[in-house]
Amino acid sequence: MSEELIIKTNGEDRRVEPGSTIVDLLQSLDIDPRMVAVELNRVIVRKTEFENTKLSDGDEVELVHFVGGG
Amino acid sequence: MTTSVTDPIETPLVIGERQFRSRLLVGTGKYKDNPTMVEAIGASGAEVVTVAVRRIDLDRTKEEGILFHLDPEKYFLLANTAGCYTAEDAIRYSRLAREAGFNEFVKLEVLGDQETLLPDVAGLIEATETLVKEGFKVMAYTNDDLITACRLEDAGCVSVMPLASPIGSGLGLINPYNIRTIKKRLSVPVIVDAGVGTASDACVTMEQGVDGILMNTALAEARDPVGMAHAMRHAVVAGRQAYLSGRMPTREIAVPSSPTTGMMD
Questions:
Q1: Do A63 and B55 touch (CB under 8 A)?
Q2: pLDDT digits (tens, 9 = 90+) for A36-46
Q3: Average pLDDT for residues B42-56, to the nearest whole number?
Q4: Contacts for B172 with CB less than 8 Å, ≥ 6 apart
Q5: Which residues pair with B15 in a beta bridge?
Q6: How far is B212 from B188, CA to CA, in rounded Å?
Q7: Whole-prediction pTM value?
Q8: CB pairs A-B closer than 8 Å
């Protein structure tokens, strides 16, 4: 029996399956990995590492992208 | 019958070893809709376009992001650190921007005050020093103080960007003397950022000798952003050409333009 992990994504709590990777998280949110920058516990995750990076309980993830600005 | 006029050839704007034809840089914020933004940016002739870095709205991930509307192959996307009030935040946003983006340039903002959005100079210098060591090409939004501008250049900025007046104020060039002084002293390109409101502001600013202008609100909040973008494109070229041509002196007495001899009795 494996329990779901609780991670914070952009400040909101989210449940994910144990063993989930960044790629899984992005897929569950319908986010194109090419269009996002990812920070895991304040450390940037390179795009090439998305599928190798597993999430742990209590992780804090920031998903950012470009928007209009001056 | 009309005669066609060929404009003088303009030298490129060089920032951090990248060359640009246009000396008008524009932002992408505050437009009423994306089609207006795209058309205005097109009319401006700008090649460098700023963007901000923000959390993805997890409830609206299917909405088209800015990269859908502005092709990164066509435009040079310059990420900013808008909204950052500490060096630490600005550094964090810069690193994420580089990861998300297409180049190592950053328009560095470290703000000191919410009402005026004036910069925190100490924070700017601290962030610049860290970012330069990490290989960033830092273009620093700053105030119009000469000493601050010199410190930012010393810290390794590839461009210093003094404000004409506060962001979004549309007050135009409040202190031409300060901007002129900064331009005469610095070696890196000086690009005036913030406060330009209408075409005459842009023209007067370029007449101080600066290398370029960055504007956002002047276009986005014009009644006709596309029309204003055309005006600004001309204004930046006109101001630059006037500067390069060396204006006439001012004087406090009149000197006639027509001959004083040959008048009838």
A1: yes
A2: 999 999 999 99
A3: 97
A4: B164, B165, B195, B196, B197, B198, B200, B201, B204, B205
A5: B18
A6: 12
A7: 0.95
A8: 97
